[in-house]
């Protein structure tokens, strides 16, 4: 069974929506800071148990699947006929749109990875020599901002085709 353009768009939207949802929940569940526990010459940071890192990782994977689906949608053979890349990118509007869509996707993926890795590092490297450490977490707003960029990226990939002859 061949995939239709609407099925591919739904796949992109499905994974993009999950990337958004996971990112927003990660932002809401992230504690503002950990609890510093004084030791002998060190501060040990204790963080509450929460799913922030797991949700961030799920968001990264969902956005990656959305991006792969969107990439497939651009180069998907329509009715068994493949459109040459040179013909697709002769259009200035499509080229600019494609560059913007890819840039937003890369920015969203990078921000979500940054927030997830930072949060994971704060939790795994929780012993500090600096006795004034306040036990930070990832910067507030990174997960949420990346989530909205992920939603934007998936919506850009799902925009309907303007060519009425390519509608399915």
Secondary-structure element series: HEEHHHEH
Report the principal-axis shape. Answer: elongated
Structural class estimated from helices and strands? mainly alpha
Radius of gyration, CA atoms, in whole angstroms: 21 Å
What is the count of structural domains? 1
Largest sheet: 3 strands, antiparallel
Q: Helicity level, as a percent range? A: 55-70%
Cα(first) to Cα(last) distance is: 15 Å
Please state how the strands of the largest beta sheet are arranged side by side: 1-2-3
Outline:
The protein has 168 residues and is mostly helical.
Topology:
Elements: H1 5-29, E1 35-38, E2 43-46, H2 52-75, H3 85-88, H4 92-124, E3 127-128, H5 142-158
Antiparallel strand pairs: 1-2, 2-3
Helix pairs in contact: 1-2, 1-5, 2-4, 2-5, 4-5
What does the model show?
- The chain has 168 residues and is mainly alpha-helical.
- It contains five helices and three strands, in the order αββαααβα.
- It has helices at 5-29, 52-75, 85-88, 92-124, 142-158; strands at residues 35-38, 43-46, 127-128.
- It has a three-stranded antiparallel beta sheet with strand order 1-2-3, with no helix packed on it.
- Strand 1 (35-38) and strand 2 form a beta hairpin.
- The longest helix has 33 residues, at 92-124.
- It is elongated and about 70 Å long.
- Its main location: membrane.
- Belongs to the DESIGUAL family.
Based on the model shown, name its key terms.
168 residues, mainly alpha, three-stranded antiparallel beta sheet
């Amino acid at each position: 069974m061949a995939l239709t353009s609407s099925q591919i768009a739904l796949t992109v939207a499905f994974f993009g929506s999950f990337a958004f949802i996971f990112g927003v929940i990660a932002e809401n569940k992230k504690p503002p800071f950990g609890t510093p526990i004084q030791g002998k010459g060190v501060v040990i940071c204790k963080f509450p148990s929460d799913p922030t890192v797991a949700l961030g990782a799920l968001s990264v994977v969902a956005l990656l699947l959305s991006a792969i689906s969107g990439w497939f949608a651009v180069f998907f053979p329509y009715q068994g006929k493949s459109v040459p890349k040179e013909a697709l990118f002769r259009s200035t509007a499509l080229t600019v749109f494609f560059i913007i869509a890819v840039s937003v996707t890369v920015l969203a993926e990078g921000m979500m990875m940054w927030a997830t890795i930072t949060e994971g590092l704060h939790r795994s490297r929780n012993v500090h020599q600096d006795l004034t450490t306040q036990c930070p977490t990832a910067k507030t707003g990174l997960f949420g901002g990346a989530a909205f960029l992920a939603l934007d990226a998936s919506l850009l990939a799902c925009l309907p085709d303007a060519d009425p002859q390519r509608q399915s």
